[in-house]
Give the backbone structure.
Amino acid sequence: MALLLAAIAAWLGGATGAALRGGIAVAVALIALIGGRVVPSFTRNWLARQPAPGRLPVPANRADTGVLVLTVAALALWVALPDAVPTAIAALFAGLANLWRLSRWAGGRTLSEPLLWVLHLGFGFVPLGFLLLAGAALWPAGMPRTGMEHAWLAGAIGVTTLAMMSRATLGHSGRALSAGRGTVAVYLLVAGAALARIAAGFLPGQIWLLTLSGSAWVAGFGGFALLYAPLFLRPRAGARRG
């Protein structure tokens, strides 16, 4: 933040770009780190309570640590050298590694519980962003440079933030950890907004995609406010009134 403010004050456009990339990189790294703990843990706990638990997520191990190191290295290269070929190669491997990591968390077995599958969906935008970054650097004529930014900002950060806010609100307000139809609609709206914005980069002439993305984004977070504001204003479920 200090670098960003200093860059703006001094009109240093290059430093401003690095600062903005640095902020995005930190957020993505936090999702890769914390999401890598939370998503498989929540999934395992829920599956273990089912009548037929079946395949459970693989616990975090040294392989996850290796993927995190690769993820941070790729992000650091992107911050410092966004257009370099080594950055593209590192991003490609980071994307594939995080996809492999996500595949070990049994996300396909959570489709009946929206509070869980939305966490897998949000994390899925992390490897998507890396792959879009690699594609834009290695094939600039066919891949938009903005795709990665929207995958990370609107997708990974937006969807994950919404998922954690809804889960935390339900839990801390004493409600059951179960998403209703309204919450599912909110999840789909925000995820759809991210996908539409990414698609708009591939189809620059289709202005309706930008309108769709913006409208879905506002509707998604606006819907969350309408659905969850009452939970903040009411007493915790089961709490005694003095």
About this structure: The CA atoms of residues 122 and 161 lie 9 Å apart. Residues 7-14 have pLDDT under 50 and may be disordered. The chain is about 75% helix and 0% strand.
